[in-house]
């Protein structure tokens, strides 16, 4: 199964943020070594660079986490409504690739008539109630 481009982008952003965070920890370690050796110019450079990198990496990870939560809440479900032509027995099921209206999907569970897809629709995500 292949990942969608949007999820691949998310994984790359998380990996990039973790790499930046790892580099920032290393840079902070180097800054402390430079301070102990008395090389204050390099200490300030590495301390500032690692501080900025830590803030950016943590910010990026938090934004990605927030974006994933929003996308999961907004996910819509696509449903297929299947109805028996003989007795009117109705089944609502998840949309499957290849579904189309009036497609025969099998025998009825109640009367052994022919079941056909009657409609396909998207279910809207639940809206937040105002507090």
Structural commentary:
The radius of gyration is 28 Å and the shape is rod-shaped. Strands 2-1-4-3 form a four-stranded antiparallel β-sheet, with no helix packed on it. The mean pLDDT is 85. It contains two helices and four strands, in the order ααββββ. It is of the alpha+beta class and 131 residues long. 52% of the residues lie in helices and 21% in strands. A hairpin with a 6-residue loop joins strand 3 and strand 4. Helix 1 packs antiparallel against helix 2. The protein has two domains: 70 residues; 47 residues, 2-Layer Sandwich (60s Ribosomal Protein L30, Chain: A).
Cα separation of the termini: 41 Å
| pLDDT < 50 stretches | none
Query: pLDDT average, as an integer?
Result: 85
- Structure class: alpha+beta
Largest sheet descriptor: 4 strands, antiparallel
Tell me the strand percentage band. 15-25%
Helix content: 40-55%
Number of helices: 2
Cα-atom Rg, whole angstroms?
28 Å
Q: What series of H and E elements makes up the topology?
A: HHEEEE
Number of strands: 4
Strand order of the largest sheet: 2-1-4-3
What's the number of domains? 2
Assembly type of the shown chains?
single chain
Overall geometry comes to rod-shaped
